[in-house]
Amino acid sequence: MTDMLFAAIMIGGVGLFVGVFLGFASKVFAVKVNQKEKEILEILPGANCGACGYSGCAALAAALARGDAPANACVVGQESVANQIKWIIGGKSERVVRNVAFVRCSGDCNCTFDRYDYTGPKTCAAIALVPQGGPKSCSYGCIGCGDCVRMCEYGAITIHRGVAVVDQEKCLDCRKCMNTCPKNVIIEVPYYRAAHIGCMNPMKGKPVTENCRIGCISCGKCVRDCPAGAITLDGGFPVIDYEKCTDCGTCRDNCPRHCIV
Questions:
Q1: CATH for 237
Q2: What DSSP letter does each residue of 17-50 carry, written as one string?
Q3: How far apart are CA 102 and CA 59, in angstroms?
Q4: pLDDT digits over 116-130, tens only?
Q5: Are 69 and 44 spatial neighbours (Cβ–Cβ below 8 Å)?
Q6: Which H helix or E strand runs over 238?
C-alpha cells in the first residue's frame, strides 16, 4: 500500500513539474506575433497560389509586414485587397492592373484532327509524354483533357470542342492553370485588352496549314496593318504590345487565318 502511495505521489509530482516547465517554456520561447502581419493575413484571400512569388499567404503577409513586398503584391486580391493592405503598412501602392489567363490555342476539333488513336490515361500531363506530344495534329496546341479545369478553384475554365476556354470574368489570375499546363499554352494577358493571338505554333507556312485550319503562319499581315504599331514579329512570331494596343480590331478583322481572337 505504501509503495502504491509513493508511486502515485511520484507520478503526480512529475506531472506537476512537467506542466510547470512547459508553461514556463511556452512563455520563454513563445514566438512574438506581429499584429500587423496578423491583420494582413486576415485580409488576404487565402488562395495560397504562390502567384505573388511567395510560398503562400502567410509568407506574403510576413513580407508585407516587414516592408519587403508592395501593397499590391496579391494578384488574386487585386485592387480591393491592395487598398486595405495599404492602410495597414502605409506608403503608396501602384495601381493594380488586372490580368487574366488566356489559352493560346484556337485549334479546336473543327480545325485539327487526330493522327492516331490514344488509349492511355485521359490527362494532359500523361498525353504530353506520348509520341508527338499526343495524337492531336498540332503538337503545340491545347490537349483538351482538362487538367487546368480541375486545378481552377474558381470555375473559370471549361473545355469547348476540345480546347480550354477561360471565362475572364471569373478568372482571378492565380496562375495555377498556367503552372499545370504541360504545353505552356496558357499565358497571362491584360483583362482590359480585347485582341490576343490564339496560336503558339512556332512553325511557318505549310507545316502549320497541314495540321490546323486557323494556325498562325507568321505572314506578318497583322504587323503591317496595325495602325498603332502594336504588333511585332519576335523570332518570326507575332507579339502584341498591350501598352500600344488600342483595341481597334484591325488585326483580328484582317488576319487571313482568323487566329487573332
A1: 3.30.70.20
A2: HHHHHHHHHHHHSPPPP-HHHHHHHHHS------
A3: 28
A4: 999 999 999 999 999
A5: no
A6: strand 237-240
How many domains is the chain built from? 3
**Could you give the CA distance from residue 103 to residue 64 in angstroms, rounded to a whole number?**
32
Cell numbers given for 111: 480545325
Helices (H), 29-144: 35-43, 57-66, 78-89, 124-127
Q: Could you tell me if residue 108 is inside a domain? A: yes
3-state secondary structure of 18: helix
Place of cell 505521489: 9
Q: Does the residue 206 lie in any domain?
A: no
Sequence-ordered strand ranges (E) for 16-162: 99-103, 157-160
DSSP, collapsed to helix, strand or coil, labels residue 188 as strand
Number of DSSP helices (H) and strands (E) in the chain, helices first: 10, 6
Residue 10 pLDDT grade (very low, low, confident, very high; cuts 50, 70, 90): low
* 18 falls within a domain: no
Helix (H, G, I), strand (E, B) or coil at 190: strand
Q: Is residue 107 part of a domain?
A: yes
Q: Determine how β-strand 157-160 pairs with β-strand 231-234.
A: unpaired
Residues 85 and 103 in one domain: no
For residues 82 and 104, membership in a common domain is answered with no
Of 192, 220, 242, the one marking the end of a domain is: 192
Instruction: Name the nearest CA neighbour of 147 among 113, 199, 183, 117.
Output: 183
- Tell me the per-residue pLDDT of 157-182, one tens digit each, with 9 for 90 and over: 999 999 999 999 999 899 999 999 99
Enclosing domain of residue 66: 35-89
Distance separating alpha carbons of residues 36 and 84, to the nearest angstrom: 12
Chain segment 209-257, per-residue pLDDT in tens: 999 999 999 999 999 999 999 999 988 889 999 999 999 999 999 999 9
Are 103 and 166 in a shared domain? Answer: yes
